[in-house]
UniProtKB/TrEMBL annotation:
UniProt xrefs under Gene3D superfamilies: 5' to 3' exonuclease, C-terminal subdomain, Beta Polymerase, domain 2, DNA polymerase beta, N-terminal domain-like, DNA polymerase, thumb domain, Metal-dependent hydrolases
EC number: 2.7.7.7, 4.2.99.18
Role, per record: Repair polymerase that plays a key role in base-excision repair. During this process, the damaged base is excised by specific DNA glycosylases, the DNA backbone is nicked at the abasic site by an apurinic/apyrimidic (AP) endonuclease, and POLB removes 5'-deoxyribose-phosphate from the preincised AP site acting as a 5'-deoxyribose-phosphate lyase (5'-dRP lyase); through its DNA polymerase activity, it adds one nucleotide to the 3' end of the arising single-nucleotide gap.
Helix-hairpin-helix DNA-binding motif class domain segment(s): 52-71, 92-111, 127-146
Cofactor: Mg(2+)
Main location: cytoplasm
GO biological process: DNA repair
UniProt protein name: DNA polymerase beta
Record-annotated DNA-directed DNA polymerase X domain positions: 1-319
Domain Polymerase/histidinol phosphatase N-terminal: 343-422
Amino acid sequence: MNQKLAHLFYQLAEYLEMNEVAFKPQAYLRVALNIENMPEDLEEIYRQKGAGGLKDLPGIGQGIAEKIEEFIKTGRIGELEKLRRQTPVDIEALTKIEGIGPKTIRTLYKELGVKNVADLEKAAKSQKIRQLEGFGAKTEENILSAVRFSRQDADRFLLGFIWPAVEEVKNKLAKVPGVRRVEVAGSLRRRQETVGDIDLLAVSSQPQKLIDFFTSLPNVEKIYGQGQTKANVRLDWGIDADLRVVPPKSFGAALQYFTGNKDHNIALRKIAIQRGYKLNEYGVFALGAKKEENLVTGESEKDIYNFLGLQYLPPEARENTGEIELAQANKFPRLVGYGDVLGDLQMHTRWSDGAYSILEMAQAAKKLGRQYILITDHAGRLEIAGGLKEADLQKQMVEIETADKKISGLKILKGAEVDIDKDGRLHIDDATLSRLDIVLGSIHSGFKINKQEMTRRVCQAMQSPHLDVWAHPSGRLLQRREGYQVDWGEIFRAAKKTNTAIEINAYPERLDLSWPKVKDAIAAGVKLTIGTDSHSIDHLKYLDLGVSVARRGWAAKKDILNCLSWQDLLKYFRK
């Protein structure tokens, strides 16, 4: 419910900004961010305490409480419905296009009648956008490119945003009487960056009872099919979900089969056939003298892999990119574990564009079991994100030291995310950078420069003795923006030579480096870090998403620097 409400308040802000309403858009944006990051379930609070309970929450006043109440009761917010009628523009779809915000939408709507993505594409193709004041041929080309990119995976959901909701459904199913086990399968279990649908598997002594419970969940919008052991539904998040109840003797085989991926499964079936067996979602079968099928194993995934002569392969590695051959030779690496990463190496506070104080972020990180955090507020010319200047950073260092003394059991390290300019320079002076524990460098502008210039820019930045980590390295935003073009081989060689680590950014819209590039970086001898890029305490939980990317890229514990203690981490960067 919180995510739905936050989404609606974001839309309210966008419509009002498009209509040039003063002040209210910023207010609704703050409300949306606040709701998005609230640990409390607003619907549950309303059911228990009514509108008064909502008003007791920080950042929720009378007017906002009334809108939340209205949505819970009716499924709509009147003010938003009115704005949609007055402004017949698909603002939600248009703002997903890179470079298109409410102000641009207003201009395109008023001047060219653009109401949706199809209109936008048509206007760009007919070269009408370049004729508008403030636009140009290059802007028009970028819009066309962004429209094409937006259609990739358009019907899929970001892993980080869908995973918590699926876990909630899984936990509800696990509590139904008779249920012995429930697991998520499919691309979710493999931790793929985007997810098209949800696969759930269960073992239960009362299959029909579990199926009936599943189809009656409040967030089931439509039932496509329902039987004694299987149901297929549409959830109100806009995604389809399957639940299959399987017998215990076949659970491992079913989990392996429905986890995939398809190419990995085909390769396993070929191995089974070569050994004289048959493998499917029900188990491994031996053919008898009369060609009858006799179950050999199927209860556990590990038993299946071992029976076929392979090491057990974690779900994240099942992409048929060489993992099976390594497992046959007993050479597949032991992957970094979700509990191996001790600290979070990117987060933002109120000093720049974060929502919480240094101490609040530290306290929240400690509750999640982190041993250390690195404060990395924006520094340099990134004014839109509150980029700090040298004097600001020096003041912040004092506050970090003060906060570090106030909290026990967690170390707060001094850092910054410094803007890398087009010449590859860091936009903070050397004297200030030398006082920081760890310095991140990142690119926030000039994404469209050519491959050669961008490669030179990054390699030049790595020559700085102060740059420790290159952050969100490709600059991509999943489903919104392609990464910039660089010569990765040259960059990995520069990183290795200068001892510059490269970040796996764990924020759901980034997951950057991508897992194939993680494999390439490790092969080149480059060390990696993981940072959540948190701007709120609720984002700190994304650390596991970064670990999942590392695992998909076959990273071992030794490849990830924040598996070190903070003392050893600082020694590494200072040597």
